[in-house]
Amino acid sequence: MLSLEEAKSRILAALPQMPVEEIELEFSLGRFAASTLVTQIDLPPFDNSAMDGYAVRSDDLKNASSQHDVALRLAGKIGAGEGASRVEPGSCIRIFTGSCLPVGADAVVMQEDTKTEGEKIIFSEVARPFKNVRVKGEDVRKGSVILDKGLKINATRRGLLAACGISLVPVIERPRVGLVATGNELRELGEILRESEIYESNRTLLSGFLNEIASVRIFPLVRDDLGMTRKSLEHAFSLCDVIISTGGVSVGELDFIKEAFEAIGGVIDLWKIAVRPGKPFVFGRWKEKFLFGLPGNPVSALVTFLMLVRPALLKMSGAAHIELPTMEGELVDEMVNDGNRRHFMRVRWEAGKVYRAGPQASHMIGSLGEANGLLDVAPEARLERGKKVKVQLWALPDE
Ligand code: AMP
Ligand code: MG
What CATH number belongs to 4-18+174-316? Predict the structure, then answer.
């Protein structure tokens, strides 16, 4: 059986990156930059005031002190968005936060530190050069990198791009991913369960992760029948770049994913990996498209998705970082793997502590409300309480 690492490197090597497209900044949230972005403008683009106050020549105030007031003539006003004017020696100009600094001025004195006497403004302190002045380019220099290739355009990065005037961004196209669930026992939400049936939940579970990475299409339920499975895969491949199926990849005579995939011309690259849960995982290629056949048990589907499919799709989407973030923590509960395959156990990481999230059988999903990460426990390992471990997180604890 393949190790997780072998399976992963084979999958990553097989998957191409999606093409580049240029899209409006407005629609770029969550997408990955296809190239390193450089600003064509300085931030701020011009010298401006950091305060509401008076633009002055610092030299005019060099003798000002609490014992010695200096009066300057008020020569005008510059509102934010208005063009710069000029400040002559012996005068000052009323200025506001974000207003363009007038030519000749090199400092701004806060309104609160001045007094007004008719047409004169009284100052009783020196003004150091550049005091309360935001200098052109001091924040972001024209020509500097504002987003590295492969980084996600999140809310703050998108705000920075907007500030730099970037309205079109090159990103990697999102893969179109189809979700297919197989099983005679599965029912759609809203239907009434008969005895021996369960609500289908894998497509919902996985689409919650996928929506961030891909454009997702959910296909109708597939019965455990070779013909129907074939038709469903064919249909899904006609609309998607990648299919993620769940169920029907084991060795039972009602498991049809592999057979149906091969029947439509798919080539299986790997099947079965040495992890728990999630052993019966299949990966294959159909023309230039790909199948990830996940086991049906929801936790097995989750673990194989997070460990193998998510990084693969992130690679296709042009992401520089494809792994789940990890957090270190101290075990509060002992974790025991008495099996001979490494076990990805559901845990909750919170404030540096790691708790076991309920029973660990692969069909038991009650713990999914509590768990926010996976702990990789080696075969036949016993991790004692208090041990420092690394958890791969899929959510933050306070979410
Ligand atoms: P299978 O991999 O098809 O043998 O299914 C393994 C277990 O997972 C069975 O108990 C199924 O009922 C369950 N299962 C399969 N698919 C789903 C699904 N889409 N949603 C919830 N449970 C499922
Ligand atoms: Mg099944």
Answer: 3.40.980.10
The CATH classification number of 326-393 equals 2.40.340.10
Q: Which atom from ligand 1 is nearest to the alpha carbon of 297?
A: 8
Residues in contact with ligand 1 (CB, 6 Å cut-off): 181, 183, 185-186, 198, 200-202, 246-248, 250, 295-298, 363
Which residues place a Cβ less than 5 A from the ion ligand 2? 183, 247-248, 296
**b/e map 104-128, b = 16+ CB within 10 Å:** bbbbbbbeeebeeeeebbebbbbbe
Residue-level pLDDT, tens digit, the chain, 399 residues: 999 999 999 999 999 999 999 999 999 999 999 999 999 999 999 999 999 999 999 999 999 999 999 999 999 999 999 998 999 999 999 999 999 999 999 999 999 999 999 999 999 999 999 999 999 999 999 999 999 999 999 999 999 999 999 999 999 999 999 999 999 999 999 999 999 999 999 999 999 999 999 999 999 999 999 999 999 999 999 999 999 999 999 999 999 999 999 999 999 999 999 999 989 999 999 999 999 999 999 999 999 999 999 999 999 999 999 999 999 999 999 999 999 999 999 999 999 999 999 999 988 999 999 999 999 999 999 999 999 999 999 999 876
CB burial readout 307-328, b (16+ within 10 A) else e = bbbbbbbbbbbbbeebebeebe
CATH code for the structural domain at 21-41+139-172:
3.90.105.10
Atom of ligand 1 at shortest distance to CA of 185?
12
Kindly give the distance from the C-alpha atom of residue 183 to the centroid of ligand 1, in angstroms, as a whole number. 7
